[in-house]
Amino acid sequence: MTVIERREIALVDLLDRLLAGGVVITGDITLRIADVDLVRIDLNALISSVNEQVPSPWGELL
Amino acid sequence: MTGLRYVYAVCRPFGAPLQAQLKGVAGDPPRLLSHHGLIAVVSHVPERDFAEEPLRRRLEDLDWLTETARAHQSVIDALTVVTTPLPLRLATVFRDDSGVRVMLEEREEDFRRTLDRLQGRVEWGVKVYVENGPETGAEPAQKPASGRDYLRQRRMRARAHEDLWQQTEEFANGLHSTLSRYAEDSRLHAPQNPALSGVSGRNVLNAAYLVPRDHSEEFVELVDRTKDQTKVDSPGIRVELTGPWAAYSFAGEEA
After folding, report:
1. Which CATH fold would you assign to the domain B121-250?
2. Is B51 on the interface with A (CB under 8 A)?
3. pTM for the whole thing?
4. Smallest Cα–Cα separation from A11: which of B164, B86, B60, B70?
5. Do A21 and B4 make contact, defined as CB atoms within 8 angstroms?
6. B147 vs A61, B134, B150, B155, B159, CA distance in Å?
7. Which of B80, B183, B184, B222 minimizes the number of CB atoms within 10 Å of its CB?
């Protein structure tokens, strides 16, 4: 089923899908990752160390 | 058995075994929990990382998030070889097996409907970038002879950049509608941030397309042709293809 050669998947492509896609189920432990203040805080920290002008990549999805 | 339950995906029963070497998040091999004719793919995860409080902290740790996301993806990938999995959002955690069974029961109808919709389909990611920066599309700037020259050069560069930007938007819209006609369904993700992706250029289209596995080869060829054509016609624009993915972007209810 590998139609094209598999390369290492970029983390951003993966996070687009794992944090914004997938079925959302209220598990016993659910942190509402879609709303992720959590992840955004961390990624914002990462981003702002590179460029303070860049907005959160997931902000517009909410 | 102690520990919490991390659920990767829900599937219909499948005959083939999963790869023996497969490790899930936290290193525990995933197992199949069968209930009401559905299968939850589950592994055991330690409370010290996955209980609510530690998980909250862990998700703020990019290295941990990366490792967990990759492990999640490798399980989904392995499932994709043997069936069409319905992937769950990262870090869906239950206290025990019975919590997972209750969830399967509660969502049973949803799951069946979505599994039917996704059966035999995969997701392809297509991104369009436009090169940005003053060097793009403009001849190397001559040293301005005067203030007026300087302003004129700057205006020309800005205009060249604006043209390229507009051309890229038109290109991206055109490509998206072509691919949407070809695909069964499509989703637009937010454009990616260059600081995170580490790639050059500005991401103007970040789309996902749901395509029957059997038609994937043609879809890929179509994108590849466009990609090559674009290299020749519009050097400032770049097309990228990723996949095949499990249908992450289409796992929710139909839009």
Report:
1. Alpha-Beta Plaits (3.30.70)
2. yes
3. 0.83
4. B70
5. no
6. 44, 18, 5, 12, 18
7. B184
Burial class (CB in 10 A: 0-12, 13-18, 19+), A3: middle
- Which residues of chain A are within 8 Å of residue B56 when distances are taken between CB atoms? 31, 38
The amino acid at A55: P
Please report, in tens digits, the pLDDT of each residue of chain A (62 residues total). 344 444 578 888 888 888 888 888 877 776 665 444 444 545 554 444 444 444 444 444 43
Ranges of each domain in chain B = 4-118, 121-250
Give CA angle at B199 (B80, A6), nearest 5°: 25
Residue B203, CB-side half-sphere exposure with 13 Å CA sphere:
24
Nearest-CA distance from A43 to chain B in Å?
8
> For residues B171 and B232, what is the distance between their CA atoms, to the nearest angstrom?
14
Please write the tens of the pLDDT for every residue from A6-22. Answer: 457 888 888 888 888 88
Q: Give me the interface pTM, i.e. the ipTM.
A: 0.82
Neighbours of A42 (CB within 10 A): 17
Instruction: Tell if the CB–CB gap between B93 and A27 is shorter than 8 Å.
Output: yes
Measured between alpha carbons, how far is B187 from B252 in angstroms, rounded to an integer?
A: 11
Residues 6+ apart with CB under 8 A from A19: A33, A34, A36, A39, A58, B89, B90
Instruction: With residue B125 as reference, give the H or E element that holds it.
Output: strand B121-130
CB–CB of B190 and A57 under 8 A?
yes
State the smallest CA–CA distance between residue A60 and chain B in angstroms: 7
A:B CB pairs within 8 Å? 160
**B4·A61 Cβ contact <8 A:** no
In 3D space, the residue among B255, B56, B42, B142 whose CA is nearest the CA of residue A38 turns out to be B56
Q: Give the pLDDT means over successive 10-residue stretches in chain B (255 positions).
A: 87 89 92 95 94 84 88 94 93 92 94 96 96 56 78 87 88 96 93 78 94 96 95 91 95 67
Measured between beta carbons, which residues in chain A are less than 8 angstroms from residue B190?
16, 20, 57-61
